Amino acid sequence: MASEPTIDTAQHHWPRAGLEEIPVLDLGDYLAGKAGAAEQLGAGLRDAQERIGFFYIHNHGVPQDLIDRMFAETSRFHAQPLDRKTSIKIDEQQTGYAPMQSSEIKYGDAVVDGRHKPDLSEALWLRRDIPDDDPELLAGRRFRRNKWPEGLPGFRDTVGEYMVAMEQLGRRMLPLYALALDLPADYFAPFFVRADIPCRFGHYPAHLGGPDHFGAAPHTDAGFMTLLPQAKEAGLEIFTRSKRWIPAPVRPGDILVNGGNCLVRFTNGRFLATPHRVVGGLPRDRYSIPLFYNPAFDAVVAPVPTCARADGSAGFAPIRYEDYIAGYLASVYAHQARAAAREQSAQHA
Ligand SMILES: O=C(O)CCC(=O)C(=O)O
Ligand SMILES: [Fe+2]
């Protein structure tokens, strides 16, 4: 299984105060095509990703009405009776309904405080929708088949609209990552043709858990960039390089962005995948709708040329994204660990 990335802290030198500030990047001028805006944002993104691993984006171009409708659909889905939700229960495809406390194994090295209780949240996972005759789907590849809820008219259309808008945002942000790393602006584009864009439409019921039992236990995300439209309720906390948990303030209308383990691998540990968690014991129900903007399944995630290690060592070994994500999921979910074991024994049979 793929080993989790570790952060090369020797490359980071920042005063403590700065380690706890989540910057805001305004994409307005950039999306309007203003000269110089991309370079300026690239520098801001570099600072954010080296220092704290999280940043808000303002004027991101995704209509608020669409985000509001996606939140409304998410609460409509979770308001259904449990047997309706479990009729599309999550399986080795990693799409469908993940019930409360279904993260059965814990997040390997990313667990920063040794607490191992399964998440007090439920979620509907969906990926890019592909036609029934897609060759990879017909070949039985994992992570390809969506499970759509029935009896919720309009749900599927809204999810489709949301995925298109959010994927476009992710694609438009790729040049900023490239410029942040002194690479040609189009460097990352080929890795994201048919990007993997899993969405987690999550519900954290009020009054569950507490200081030692979380809505989402401490973890790092697996992919490249996580796009998290702001929930109405607070509750997300991030573990900074000053070794403290700080709340991520709710900034209505903005989208919170954070780096995942694939970004760490691309940058040989220079950009952070910062551990985060959702606290337990929330005063009100909380919904969240992250889209994980990740490479295509066949893309090979390998350190970029500008992130060679100073000591000449190679750093992270190249790995196909799909192999990486399968290993990550097997470390979090028992059903994925079983699927991985089945695939291994089939290969050796
Ligand atoms: O609900 C949130 O605010 C964050 C959830 C999260 O960290 C995740 O789904 O990876
Ligand atoms: Fe996360």
Task: State the name of the first-level CATH class.
Answer: Mainly Beta
Output the helix-strand order.
EHHEHHEEHHEEEEEEHEEEEEHH
Structural class, judged by helices and strands?
Answer: alpha+beta
Strand order of the largest sheet: 1-2-10-7-13
Bound molecules: 2-oxoglutaric acid, fe (ii) ion
How would you characterize the largest beta sheet? 5 strands, mixed
Write out the CATH superfamily name: B-lactam Antibiotic, Isopenicillin N Synthase, Chain
Number of domains: 1
**Percentage of helical residues?**
25-40%
Query: Spans of 5+ residues with little confidence (pLDDT < 50)?
Result: 1-11, 108-112
Shape, please?
globular
Describe the structure.
This protein has 349 residues and is an alpha+beta fold. The chain has a single domain, classed as Jelly Rolls. 29% of the residues lie in helices and 16% in strands. It is built from nine helices and 15 strands. The strands form four sheets. A five-stranded mixed beta sheet has the order 1-2-10-7-13. The protein has a four-stranded antiparallel beta sheet with strand order 3-4-5-12, covered by helices on one side. A four-stranded antiparallel beta sheet has the order 6-11-8-9, with no helix packed on it. Helix 2 packs across helix 6, helix 3 packs across helix 6 and helix 8 crosses helix 9. The two termini are 19 Å apart. Its cofactor is Fe(2+). It is an enzyme of class 1 (oxidoreductase). Its EC number is 1.13.12.19, 1.14.20.7. Belongs to the iron/ascorbate-dependent oxidoreductase family. It comes from Sphingomonas naphthae.
